[in-house]
Predict the structure.
Amino acid sequence: MTIHADRTTRRMDPEPERKLGDDSGPSKPDVKKPGGPNELLKRMKRVDPDQAKKYRQRSGQ
Amino acid sequence: MRPILAGLDTEYGFSVEGRGAEDQIDDAKALVRSFPGECFPFWDDRFEAPRNDLRGFRLERLSLDPDDAKFDVGRSHGPAFEVRSDRVLLNGARFYNDHGHPEYATPETWSLAEVALHDRAGDRVVVKSAAAFAAESGREVRVYKNNTDFHGASYGTHESYLVPRSIPLENLVNGLMPMLVARQVLCGAGKVGSEQGPRCDFQISQRADFFSEPLNAETLYRRPVFNTRDEPHADPAKWIRLHVICGESNLVATATRMKLALAKAALHLIESGDQPMWRLKDPVRTIKDVSRDPDGEGRIELEGCSWTTPRQVIESYVVPFLACIANSTDAYSIEMREQLSAAMGLLEARFTDPERFARSVDWAAKRALLTQYIAAEDTNWRDPALQALDLEYHRIDGEGLFHALLNMGAVDVDPSEADVLDRTANVREATRAKARSIAVTKFRDHLASASWGTLTFNTKLGEKTVTLPPERTYPDTLGQCATVEDFIMELERT
């Protein structure tokens, strides 16, 4: 797998609408299939770069 | 060969919009209680003894992480059973709040494929509960199947193996420890950076930073490489439930199966007295050293000024075990043979075919992805975005990077969705989980409580507790019982 840089500045896709829960039981995640390496890179660039900084958990076992 | 009964329990990480770690116990409780499916809400904890130690003593208390303790000064979360919010699911799994993490403990399994299916079913249960919790609370909820928050807090993915009490503890410790230290090269989840000790860019294991003792029954603090907790959930005269806490959350299903196959191979050899006789000089230091050598073979220091590699250690178990089962035709042996043969292939591929290796091994898949990102963005491992992407790899609501790789065909195929959905409500092996599953599915109105080793019913003659010996088989015909009394009678006759 190889991903390639795409440095063209483009408007970010709007955040996908979040599905809310229902009572139909567990189901497969609503996966948006990336169209290829460039799509995957775009997806990675959409991740909040500070999300790990903000992520705090309690210790488990 | 007696198949080893095993299970996998995972504490999930999660974030709730606008909330913090101080709220995590209340939020985990609410998340578990949001589970939208049918379940039974009473777990019988009379048989739990987390302070008992295999070395023959009982800990006075279990240590808490002092940082976590600060969150709860002046706060009460309510009675323990309310906080835990146990749910016994239709498939016999236990879903509950454990120390502020939604925890899914799979039904007991013999098959490697089954444990991976039930592990994936657990992901579905947690994600669905999180979505329901988000709808109820109006806050965004994200779920991560990982083992660290990158700030020094770790939470676990634990394996349980039923082994005979007759095996001397010394043999178990000496026989299994080398495998636990070595197998991370095939089963590690990978981590950007370090949380203890010298700084590093990337390491094989999420958990290695957090082990400080070779042996211990503590699990929240002062964590051991070999956990000596003695809580058999079965006849204590016959069985030990070996509770391994140094494994980690795998996203690639191949790695989940591999983790259990390697441990089982070691346990079978220990039981037959054929285990390799490695003696590690310092297991705590070595598990960290191996983790921090993603580019090299890894170095395992041995007593007597010698050393070996993780590959040699793994092969020293796998080769003789494969010889033991070479002519076996039972399903258990065939599955073990397939998985362990794959392990041998991956050990070879690690340096000769890295792309093949990265299809089956989480740390390598994650590292390859992040390396490509670094090249594409002209950045480096110290960029905070790398830890953000590490976390995103483990996000399991469909937006995560592992799922992206899966859908691109860049990692090994997942179990089929039909099978995963089936396992969210069913048990397909004749383990004692089938009895629990039938009790929750069909006789829930009569059930007073459930645990790993017991079912307690309200009957016409009063309360009745039935034990579920783990070594027995529990046939499908149990589900044909018309009344709870017939069911109890059949369980006692099984």
